[in-house]
Amino acid sequence: MIEIKAGDTDKIKVQNKKDGVYLNDKLFDGEVIKIDDSSFKVFKSNKIFRVDVVERVGKEMKLKVNDHLIEVSITDHIDQILDKLGMNIAASAAVKDVKAPMPGSILNIIVAQGDEVKEGDQLLVLEAMKMENVIKSPGEGKVAKVHIAEKENVEKNQVLISFE
């Protein structure tokens, strides 16, 4: 079981069982079709939703749902147990590299070699799928190297920034 939280909304409990997917203990009466590793179509109540994973850093994701950006966070069973035990305040994981979540073009580089960054700090702006996507730091660290330049085209999973 996982829990998904989007913005200030309540958490949604998601369970995958033999007879289907349950959302908050109710059987989901729609259909989900996987297009590729980061794209899905959801059919529900005679409506079609296209869902694309734009960016994923740890357990945080940025989704594009029919041209609307939504930021979500996911907690799994282990996270929930740690939370119940009062151990949910974990130290930030050491960051090694930030990679391109999708192919695109670098519009703006916000950090430089030697800069200290915290989790969530803006690193660069990547234009992909005709949208500007701000790439943020997944943790604390010092920028060791910026591997790209502005206006450069990048491929999915290409290393953009390395940390010490």
Instruction: Assign an overall shape.
Output: globular
Beta-strand percentage range: over 45%
The helical percent reads under 10%
Multimerization state: single chain
Detailed description of the structure:
With 164 residues, this protein is mostly beta strands. The protein folds into 2 domains: 2-84, no CATH class; 97-163, OB fold (Dihydrolipoamide Acetyltransferase, E2P). It contains 1 helix and 17 strands. The chain has one helix at 77-84; strands at residues 2-6, 12-17, 20-23, 26-27, 31-36, 39-44, 47-57, 60-65, 68-75, 97-99, 104-109, 116-117, 122-128, 131-136, 141-146, 153-154, 159-163. A hairpin with a 2-residue loop joins strand 5 (31-36) and strand 6. The radius of gyration is 18 Å and the shape is globular. The mean pLDDT is 87. Residues 95-164 form the Lipoyl-binding domain. Keywords: Biotin.
Offer a quick outline of the entry.
InterPro entries: Biotin_BS (IPR001882), Biotin_Carboxyl_Carrier/Decarb (IPR050709), Biotin_lipoyl (IPR000089), Single_hybrid_motif (IPR011053). The chain is mainly β.
Any descriptors?
164 residues; mainly beta; OB fold (Dihydrolipoamide Acetyltransferase, E2P); 2 domains; 1 helix; Biotin carboxyl carrier protein; biotin; Biotin_BS
Summarize the SSE layout with pairings:
Blueprint: E1 2-6, E2 12-17, E3 20-23, E4 26-27, E5 31-36, E6 39-44, E7 47-57, E8 60-65, E9 68-75, H1 77-84, E10 97-99, E11 104-109, E12 116-117, E13 122-128, E14 131-136, E15 141-146, E16 153-154, E17 159-163
Antiparallel strand pairs: 1-2, 1-9, 2-3, 3-4, 5-6, 6-7, 7-8, 8-9, 10-17, 11-13, 11-16, 12-15, 13-14, 15-17
